[in-house]
Amino acid sequence: MIPSPSNRPQPEPENPGSGPREGHHPLMELRGWLARKHVPEHRHSLWYYFGGLTLFLLALMVASGLLLTLYYEPSAAPAVTSDGTPLAAARVLKGLDWGEHHYVAGDVIALPLNARTGEIIVPAGMKGAVETVKDGITGGVIRPSAAWVSVEGTIMRDVEFGPLVRSVHVYSANLLIATLLIHMFSAFFLRAYRRPRGLMWVTGFILLGLILGFAFTGYLLPWNTLAYFATRIGVSLPESSMPGIGPAAANALRGGTDVGDATLTRMYSAHVVALPMAAILFVILHLLFLQIFGLSIPIGARRRGGRGLAASLGGIAAAVLIAWPIAMGTFDPLAPPVLAAFVVLPVVIAYLLSGMAAPAVESPDGTSLGSIPFYSNFIYRDLLCWLVAFGIIVTLAIAVPWRGQNPGSMPVDLTRPLATPPGIHPEWYFMFAFQLLRAVPGTLAVICLILLGAGILAVPLLDRRAARGERSTAMTVLGIAVAVGLAGLTVWGYLSLATG
Amino acid sequence: MTAENPDTPDAPRRNAITILLWSALATIAAPVVYVAGRFIRPPAGGPATAVAGTEAELGATPAHILKVGSADAIVMRDPKGALYALNLRCTHAGCNVHWNPANGGFACPCHGGRFDRNGQVVKGPPRMPLRRMTVTLDNGVVIVSDKPSAE
Ligand code: HEM
Ligand code: FES
Q1: How far is Cα B121 from Cα B125, in angstroms, rounded to an integer?
Q2: Which residue of A26, A199, B65, B122 has the lowest C-beta tally within 10 Å?
Q3: Stretch(es) of chain A classified as CATH 1.20.810.10
Q4: A301 near A44, Cβ under 8 Å?
Q5: What residue spans define the domains of chain B?
Q6: Cβ(A58)–Cβ(A65) under 8 Å?
Q7: Peptide bond into B125 cis (omega under 30)
Q8: What tens-digit pLDDT sequence spans chain A (500 residues)?
């Protein structure tokens, strides 16, 4: 059995099997281990649930992603029908029902192309309701790729529950990144990274990088103009700002000097092979270290105290006020409730953080604290969190299925001039970098990002006092500065979008 | 629920929570499995069709092989002169049978199956006749579709 310091001595359970005994199956030891494993309980125990929540969301991503791979085709080649007829992009002009589907004005769909006339072949039921999409510059038809058709056609229209599975994948990705950030910031403010848990911090940081990698590579896969230009912007960040290795790294990421079919192949390979393998490896390491070291007890943690609960609920309400309109596609940063939420959220966060940073009032080793059994008290609360998260995701996925086609986004045809969608901007978790790039010269932006990453990675080394059981005010200030800086850049990014 | 009394005092409540949580999980697992099952089922495409040519082109003794969707088909004429089409996929294990004009039958290269020109089994191991496909005439144009033929 791996020893774990957080396994506080407990009276041996009545049930035998906690030690190796004659005639007992070795697996019985597992039961003893499970019975002995305890989780510390104190005022900040709430944060212990975010790691498990992240784990659950990761599992949900893997499951929904696995389903999506059944139909997704990672090919930028022009799509054809089963009998070889080329397809072309068509725009729906007015709402109509055709086959089993409802189409709304503005939908872009793929219809067979009459190669002689250069126009789409309009099915009888669609006469007068669709037009061929021409690119604005050469007037040529746009031929969507197999990748685009597999997403917008096969998954979104042909397969049963396709939009649901896609929405679950997208929404759990967003929630995953949110819980990951909460998990990381709480580990930071509770000084959970201090000796001996430095490796938990490092493996966790690598996981953050891998998850952002999933988000970046996955974004290209629908192969529409939004995806295309997002990738071009993202990859050009190192390219244009880091002399020497920047362009080489950018070319390696793209498989060429510009985003093209090789890029799609690479991003797909990373998204479904390399990143999952690495993520699983680092999750295993992260959890292995957790098992070895146990959960840390925050320095000077007090036993109970519910003052954070009201603040947390306020924070959740504010977050919903911001997230809901984004999900509905009606986000307006200048709308009064959203502005109010933008004000309330940082206050709540600062309040919660100040609670974590409160002065020590009890023995630093936490000996006067209680603990709860991992099984079943803690695991049941964990499960409850998972159920709530699952409920939120499925409700969102059913009520507001992710459509993925932001206005202005078109299928990419690499043989045609491409128009950048108006108002293009990244998802919220990359907004800080986007805004940073807009606000300062590229080289400076890259230096800031590298320093940020290196600084986060080095936190266990930077904070010498935590190892001695002391809380350093400098680290708290630094942490709050980073959190406020990132949040500020994000809000600034959304505000400048709204004001143009 | 604290460490001091982890087990006995609130055992009934714990049992109730256990049952509640497991039933919640089962309630959720069922629709998840259902949705995944439906999602995995490939979408039903419409029946594939292909043009074999005009009646005149096919002539009096056609043995015209063509692709219909993913299937390989052969168009033939029965003694009364009516056109019919067979799926060349052997009903034993799926090899494509060869048309042998010399003896007017089909031979399977894989396990020696033989079929007559109507697709009936002449020699094992296949047990089922070759599948018939639907032939329709549209102004003298012969169209084969992978809908199973009525006869
Ligand atoms: C896919 C990403 C991740 C998963 C699945 C994950 C999972 C977990 C789990 C299940 C725990 C135990 C429960 C808890 O304390 O919440 C944990 C603890 C921890 N994680 Fe993560 N984690 C991830 C990312 C990160 C990141 C990005 C960091 C920081 C850079 C991090 C740092 C830590 C630390 C320091 C602990 C120990 C907490 C303590 O002792 O109080 N993890 N993680
Ligand atoms: S597959 Fe034709 S005889 Fe076996």
Answers
A1: 9
A2: A26
A3: 37-74+158-499
A4: yes
A5: 1-44, 49-148
A6: no
A7: yes
A8: 344 444 444 444 445 444 455 667 888 888 888 778 787 777 666 777 889 999 999 999 999 999 999 999 999 999 988 777 889 999 888 888 887 788 888 888 888 888 888 888 888 888 888 888 887 777 788 999 999 999 998 999 889 999 999 999 999 999 999 999 999 998 888 888 888 888 999 999 999 999 999 999 999 999 998 999 999 988 988 888 888 888 899 999 999 888 999 999 999 999 999 999 999 999 999 999 988 887 777 776 655 555 566 677 777 877 787 777 776 767 776 777 777 777 777 677 766 665 555 444 444 444 456 777 777 777 777 888 888 888 888 888 888 888 765 666 788 988 888 888 888 888 999 999 999 988 888 889 889 999 999 999 999 888 888 878 777 888 888 988 999 999 999 989 888 887 76
Can you tell me the ipTM of this complex?
A: 0.75
Backbone angles phi and psi of A423, in degrees to 5: 65, 25
* Atom of ligand 1 lying closest to residue A187 CA: 35
CATH code assigned to A37-74+158-499: 1.20.810.10
The residue count of chain A comes to 500
Ligand 2 centroid from CA B110, angstroms: 5
Q: What's the gap in Å between the CA of A384 and the closest CA on chain B?
A: 8
Roughly what angle, to the nearest 10 degrees, separates helices A245-254 and A261-269? 80
DSSP collapsed to 3 states, chain B = CCCCCCCCCCHHHHHHHHHHHHHHHHHHHHHHHHHHHHHHCCCCCCCCEEEEEEHHHHCCCCCEEEEECCEEEEEEECCCCCEEEEECECCCCCCECEEECCCCEEECCCCCCEEECCCCEEECCCCCCCCEEEEEEECCEEEEEEEECCC
Q: Quick check: A372 and B35 CB within 8 A?
A: no
Q: Let me know if A231 is exposed, middle or buried by CB neighbors in 10 A (0-12, 13-18, 19+).
A: buried
Which CATH code for domain B49-148? 2.102.10.10
Q: Which two three-digit tokens encode residue A346?
A: 């940082």
Whether chain A has a CB inside 8 Å of the CB on B80: the answer is no
The answer, yes or no, to whether any atom of ligand 1 lies below 6 A from the CB of A187, is: yes
Q: Is the CB of A180 under 6 A from ligand 1?
A: yes
Q: By three-state DSSP, how is residue A39 classified?
A: strand
CB of B124 closer than 8 Å to CB of B107: no
Which amino acid residue places its CA nearest to atom 15 of ligand 1? A48
Using a CB–CB cutoff of 8 Å, tell me whether A154 touches chain B: yes
